[in-house]
Amino acid sequence: MKIKMQQPVKVVVEHDLAKSIMEILKLEDKRRVMIVLDQFLMGVPAVQEMIAEIQKNSIEMTIYGDIVPDPPASVINKGAKAMKNFGADCVIAIDGGSCLDSAKGIDIVASNGDSRDILDYVKDESLIHDFKCLISVPTTAGTGSEMSNALVVTDETTREKNAILSDRILSDYALLIPELTLSLPKRQTIASGLDVFSHAAEGYLSNLSSPMADAISERVMFLCANYLA
Questions:
Q1: N or C: which end of the chain has fewer CB within 10 A?
Q2: Cα–Cα distances in Å, from 69 out to 31, 45, 130, 174?
Q3: Which tens digit of pLDDT belongs to each residue from 208-224?
């Protein structure tokens, strides 16, 4: 049996969003930041503190807050235009899976130097050559988008959900702030927990599983059953 475990995403677990973001931005020497989130997150104190800290450190910043569930192509394309016009060298995505997926799509379209539509990359993922620094900050524990090489975009014409898969669109950082999950509604917490358990069960039962993947899956299912039941 041959097993290879590779994880290029840098995982950071912290409790202070503002401080952690500033440490990453300084480490990566990023000076023009685009923040991607939905309108609800704009009112969260931790996010407001992060925005204030970025401004205090004289880093140029723009905010794109038009994210909606099951992101349509038009929302991603609009965000990409804003990112390109601003000249962002880094994207910070804060929210659930739809936002993190949207941020990946925005980064793809804005970074590849042409006027393509995000749906063009659904048809041909080899068109993805460049990808700006992406810091993903999940506020739910269900989708795992902060760690995956995938995004899902909705074609508004056909109503189809389309996936883009590419190792070029992995987050540079997955910044995990447990406190950001506390304001999640109870029903959403339950749904996210079931999502987590389902992913772990699928991985455990897969014919492609390995001893390492089994160990991780078993631990995830144990934690879900003990703390979310």
A1: N
A2: 29, 22, 26, 20
A3: 888 988 999 999 999 99
